Amino acid sequence: MKTLNVWLDEYSESHQNPTNKKIHWLCVPVISFTVLAFAYSLHYGVALAAIAASIWFYARLSTSLAVGMLGITVVMLAIASILPNLVWWAVGLFVVAWIGQFVGHHIEGKKPSFFKDLQFLLIGPAWCLDALYKKVGINS
Question: What pTM did the predictor assign?
Answer without folding.
Answer: 0.93
